[in-house]
TrEMBL record, chain A:
Protein name listed in UniProt: ABC transporter ATP-binding protein
Organism: Solihabitans fulvus
PROSITE patterns per UniProt: ABC_TRANSPORTER_1 (PS00211), ABC_TRANSPORTER_2 (PS50893)
NCBIfam families (alphabetical): oligo_HPY, PRK10419.1, PRK11308.1
Name of a matching Pfam family: oligo_HPY
Database matches in InterPro entries: AAA+_ATPase (IPR003593), ABC_transp_ATP-bind (IPR050319), ABC_transporter-like_ATP-bd (IPR003439), ABC_transporter-like_CS (IPR017871), Oligopep_ABC_C (IPR013563), P-loop_NTPase (IPR027417)
Gene3D superfamilies from the UniProt entry: P-loop containing nucleotide triphosphate hydrolases
Annotated GO biological process: peptide transport; transmembrane transport
Family note: Belongs to the ABC transporter superfamily.
GO molecular function, one term: ATP hydrolysis activity
Keyword match rRNA-binding: no
Length: 717, 349
């Protein structure tokens, strides 16, 4: 990053000593059919130069609206009051013209969806140069702008920057686009960068890269950063201060370490307890925050969190608690009348740490670790095999032309994978998007003879199935999809949705009518929900309906395709707990696909890591997570943020370079070699083995296999 | 031809966070299935119910009119030519002294039946062909679409005109068949396109993995999810069938004198709109009444089937669906003129 120093003014040189951004009593409301939506209700915060402020909260808590207000990008029907001072200058009341001079030059924004921030018809380089020219007003020549845009792209880690500057946004992958947007954001050496969920749409490995780039950007520009996220893990190692928002207000703010280790508001505590952790050695209980955020149209009196708060007392319902200082710390504020008591519970633990806070959360919210199913006590190799996949291959032809289709290549979506699942066991399948996870599931669910290899479900080879026996197998194998909205027919009341599998398998009407309320109860819904339509339920509830449908026929194996990735963390915890409970109660086996390794660590017994259509590492979760053998697994694990600021800052991150190669044209030998850091560090004579010979899956430890010539354990979490 | 599907999926994943009613609203009857829920919602819609009743009344009138009047449609009263409504001739008489009430009722018989039958037949046929082609793809799709394209290129008016003499004297129901045969193709293509997208949706996959046979997936999941489009299409078809019959009759095909239809009555009455207004306005009024009732009843059915519709959103969702239908029809037509179809079997599975 040597070029960077010449690109930007030294940090803090031009700005005053005061805060870059000072928001006080900001309130924003929108008109809606049912009344005014009070999206932000009296928000105050400050950002100093070079400081990173993290804003965390559930969906709809007003995070985005408050930052859009700072940018002056709210729609015209929004009503804004309070004050937003940028470097001492009041922004509210400025005309759009005046604002746009500040916007893009001194304040810039990074959005969740990078594609919408880039214009599809201009090259990436041109767009950055354009930004420079507009704000440079004649002081910058075209050539200088073009040269600078290449330097910026280089700075954010785009390989071959000069070359790639000529590419169009759609030719970039998601991670590269987000990096280009960051380049755009820092082009004019801003004093404030607002990033709204900059990594939510990205894979973990790419998320780690992008966060790294943001950090670099912050270092070189010396700007203050506001980073908005719903994931407490993302900001732990990055933010200096944290603000937790709930129902349009800040409910807790303070230094990150303080807030994570000594949360003084039940909501923060709940959020902290709801995140499954990759670094957990033993099973930790997950805290679901029941219920939904309140409607912002007419908030009831008192603490807005009261309906969901396990500590609520009558006094909470009289007045809304203001933000007040806790523990005389001078910097830590919480809006809860019982925050002192929370402090008292915690003192029992000897030392303040995030782990202690999580224990307090479990205690306050009254959750316990869910036990193992009965069958789990029998040794693994004595249990029946529920699913057995051997050397399964799935290829898609790549064709060209409309009338005469020519085959110009083959996508090796799944290239010879082998695994099995025993009774009462959960196998987690992880990997970046595009590695073939969903294809694997669809092949198994299709119950057709695979292109090559074999699939057996409950001892029956699928290639030997006929119509009737296939239907019988379907009864024992059910599926839960990722998107709880898309997987329920919007035109069917959920009673019918749950009844459908039973009707297909010829169960008589009376029995179905009896079973529906049972199933609803099992997944935590009420019987009178049966005649509502899916649209009337929240995401978490819909996923519960999907699970109820899957369980209707009492299957042996449930296949889950990213069942919680579309849900907010606090709701995700409830669904994970439900799955855990059902497994313990009914002795189910799960095939659980996820890209979130922390969820897999929490729920799975065994884990398979996929890369470009192959399993690179498989084995017992504890063994794989505590001593990963394959470089890819190590990189994946090290990319997972841990919601613990101290651990997180101390962690060394393995940043994978580049993106997933195209599965139509995988690298020779070891498929991972183009991104392998171990390979890069090897002497050339050893490297040639990786290039020429495909590494076989070899046993590294009991129930732990990895496919790498130079596998060695490395602790990363 | 990218058609956005039903209105139901506009809600996001955490839709209920925006204050949807998920809390207690205990409904005592349990285990209600879709059929009964839809019926209940339809009955709640008073306008639709009234219109449905109106259609029934019109039918009753049309077929039982001889009970109310002494005149018949082919009988002339030589004592009164062109008398205005009143007396024994409730709707007046025409220039050869035929009773207008009897004629309008007789015409209504024809037009009601032609309109409703053509609307229902052509839309159901379109739905059947479109979903079958879109769901099964392969040769089924190719051969069905070939037929569709063939029928689209044939000049329908001419063919009906040529065929008409052959059917002269036979039952005019054949005419219904002919009209229907030339009205379903564009809708079938739209339905096929929607089926392609719906097929990729997870709830259809879920049904497939449950073991639900294709036929039932089409009837349980695919068709209900394009109900808005189909119902609007059917109501439009009702109106256009009545009008098509009119124009054919005008050229001397279709319903021939002394038999009458609303269409023939209206076209006969046009020249005397100002001089003898009842000759035009009475049959035209009945036509409008009929088409409007069909529209409202269709609207009610659509709302009953669409869980996301509430009174407030109804207009908007109808406008949306109509807009889609128009756009899709336009797309199909441009495609026929040799322009490349923007949509297709891009996805291989
Ligand atoms: N243009 C608008 N018109 C009306 N209401 C709006 C508008 N924009 C946002 N809102 C409402 O304001 C509230 C806060 O929204 P906001 O987008 O700030 O939430 P968020 O915390 O960013 O959530 P997420 O995590 O989903 O991004 C929500 O209830 C939302 O429905
Ligand atoms: S004020 Fe009461 S309801 Fe609100 S968070 Fe504190 S304890 Fe819970
Ligand atoms: S075989 Fe070589 S390239 Fe592949 S993971 Fe091991 S060290 Fe890296
Ligand atoms: Mg947001």
């Amino acid at each position: 990053m040597t070029a960077a120093d010449t690109l930007f003014e030294p940090a803090g040189g031009s700005s005053d000593v005061g805060p870059v951004l000072e928001v006080s009593d900001l309130a924003v409301s929108f008109p809606s059919e049912s009344g005014r939506v009070q999206a932000v209700r009296g928000l105050s915060y400050q950002v100093s130069p070079g400081e990173v402020l993290g804003i965390v909260g559930e969906s709809g808590s007003g995070k985005s609206v408050s930052s859009l207000a700072v940018m002056g990008l709210l729609p015209s029907q929004a009503r804004i009051s309070g004050s937003i001072k940028f470097q001492g200058r009041e922004l509210i009341g400025l005309s759009d013209d005046q604002l746009s001079k500040i916007r893009g030059r001194k304040i810039s924004m990074v959005f969740q969806d990078p594609l919408s921030a880039l214009t599809p018809v201009y090259t990436v380089g041109d767009q950055i140069a354009e930004g420079l020219l507009v704000h440079g007003k004649g002081r910058v020549t075209k050539q200088a702008a073009a040269k600078r845009s290449v330097e910026l792209l280089d700075l954010v880690g785009i390989p071959n920057a000069a070359e790639r500057a000529k590419a169009f946004p759609h030719e970039f992958s998601g991670g590269m686009r987000q990096r280009a947007v960051i380049a755009l954001a820092i082009a004019n050496d801003p004093d404030l960068i607002i990033a709204d969920e900059p990594t939510t749409a990205l894979d973990v490995t790419v998320q780690a890269q992008v966060l790294e780039v943001l950090k670099t950007a912050q270092e070189v520009t010396g700007a203050g950063i506001v980073i908005i996220t719903h994931d407490l893990g993302v900001v732990a190692g990055f933010a200096d201060r944290l603000m937790v928002m709930y129902a349009g207000k800040a409910v807790e703010t303070g230094h990150v370490d303080e807030v994570y280790q000594r949360p003084r508001m039940p909501y923060t505590l709940g959020l902290l307890g709801s995140i499954p952790r990759v670094d957990a050695d033993e099973k930790q209980p997950l805290v679901p925050i029941e219920g939904q955020p309140p409607s912002l149209v007419d908030l009831p009196q008192g603490c807005p969190f009261a309906p969901r708060c396990p500590m609520a007392v009558d006094a909470c319902l009289t007045d809304e608690p203001p933000l007040s200082e806790v523990d005389n710390s001078g910097d830590h504020y919480a809006a809860c009348i019982r925050s002192d008591e929370l402090g008292a519970v915690e003192v029992q633990a000897d030392e303040a740490s995030v782990a202690a806070a999580v224990d307090v959360a479990a205690e306050v919210f009254g959750v316990e670790v869910i036990g193992e199913p009965e069958v789990a006590r029998i040794p693994r190799d004595q249990r029946t095999v529920v699913l057995d996949v051997r050397d399964m291959v799935k290829e898609y032809p790549v064709t060209k032309g409309v009338v005469f289709k020519r085959r110009i290549g083959t996508v090796h979506a799944v290239d010879g994978i082998t695994f099995d699942i025993r009774e009462g066991e959960t196998l987690g399948v992880v990997g970046e998007s595009g590695c073939g996870k969903t294809t694997t599931l669809m092949e198994i669910l299709g119950l057709e003879k695979p292109m090559r290899g074999e699939i057996s479900v409950l001892g029956q080879n699928v290639s030997a199935l006929n119509g009737r026996s296939r239907k019988a197998v379907r009864r024992d194998m059910q599926v839960v999809f990722q998107d709880p909205m898309a997987s329920l027919d919007p035109r069917m009341p959920i009673g019918d949705v749950i009844a459908e599998p039973m009707q297909v398998h010829g169960i008589d009407k009376e029995q179905i009518a009896k079973r529906i309320p049972e199933l609803l109860k099992l997944v935590g819904l009420r019987r009178e929900h049966a005649d509502r339509y899916p649209a009337e339920f929240s995401g978490g509830q819909r996923q519960r309906i999907g699970i109820a449908r899957a369980l209707a026929l009492e299957p042996k194996l449930v296949v889950l395709d990213e069942p919680v990735s579309a849900l907010d963390v606090s709701i995700q915890a409830g669904v994970i707990n439900l799955l855990d409970e059902l497994k313990a109660k009914l002795g189910l086996s799960y095939l659980f696909v996820a890209h979130d390794l922390s969820v897999v660590r929490h729920i799975a017994d065994r884990v398979a890591v996929m890369y470009l259509g192959k399993i690179v590492e498989i084995g017992d979760v504890d063994s794989v997570f505590s001593s990963p053998q394959h470089p890819y697994t190590q990189a994946l694990l090290s990319a997972i943020p841990i919601p613990d600021p101290i651990k997180e800052r101390a962690r060394e991150r393995i940043i994978l370079t580049g993106d997933l190669p195209s599965p139509a044209n995988p690298p020779s030998g070891c498929r991972f070699r183009t991104r392998c850091f171990l390979h890069a560090s090897l002497p050339p004579e050893k490297q040639s083995k990786c290039i020429e010979v495909e590494p076989p899956r070899a046993v590294q430890a009991p129930d732990h296999e990895a496919a790498c010539h130079y596998a060695e354990p490395r602790q990363v979490v | 031809m990218t058609t956005i599907l039903n209105e139901g999926d506009s809600a996001g994943t955490t839709g209920a966070a925006q204050g949807s009613p998920v809390d207690a609203a205990p409904d005592p009857d349990k285990g209600t299935s879709r059929g009964r829920l839809v019926l209940r919602r339809f009955v709640r819609n008073k306008a639709a119910l009234v219109c449905l009743a109106l259609i029934v009344v019109l039918y009753f009138l049309a077929f039982c009119y001889p009970l109310f009047t002494q005149w018949t449609y082919d009988q002339q009263d030589y004592t009164s030519f062109l008398v205005p409504p009143g007396g024994t001739h409730w709707f007046g008489t025409d220039k050869i002294g035929t009773d207008m009430f009897a004629q309008v009722m007789r015409g209504l018989q024809k037009s009601l039946t032609i309109g409703l039958l053509v609307g229902i037949i052509s839309t159901s046929f379109a739905a059947l062909v479109g979903t079958t082609a879109g769901y099964f793809l392969g040769w089924t799709d190719r051969s069905l679409m070939w037929i569709v394209d063939l029928l689209l290129t044939l000049p329908s008016f001419l063919i009906i005109a040529i065929c008409s003499p052959a059917f002269r004297g036979k039952t005019w129901l054949i005419f219904v068949g002919l009209l229907a045969v030339f009205q379903w193709m564009i809708t079938a293509r739209i339905v096929r396109g929607m089926t392609l997208t719906l097929k990729e949706r997870e709830f259809v996959k879920a049904a497939k993995f449950m073991g639900q046979p294709a036929r039932r997936i089409i009837f349980k999941h695919i068709l209900p999810n394009m109900a808005s489009l189909l119902i609007i299409d059917a109501t439009i078809n009702v109106g256009s069938a009545v009008l098509a019959e009119t124009s054919l009759s005008f050229f001397g095909f279709g319903v021939q004198p002394p038999d009458v239809s609303l269409g023939t009555l209206i076209s006969d009455g046009t020249e005397s709109t100002l001089t003898y207004p009842w000759l035009f306005f009475i049959p035209a009024g009945f036509l409008v009444l009929f088409v409007l009732s069909v529209n409202f009843a269709g609207d009610g059915l659509r709302d009953a089937l669409d869980p996301s519709s509430t009174k407030g959103r109804r207009k908007e969702s109808k406008r949306k669906a109509l807009g889609e239908l128009r756009k899709a029809k336009f797309d199909v037509q441009t495609e026929r003129r040799g322009m490349p179809a923007p949509q297709g079997e891009g996805k291989h599975r």
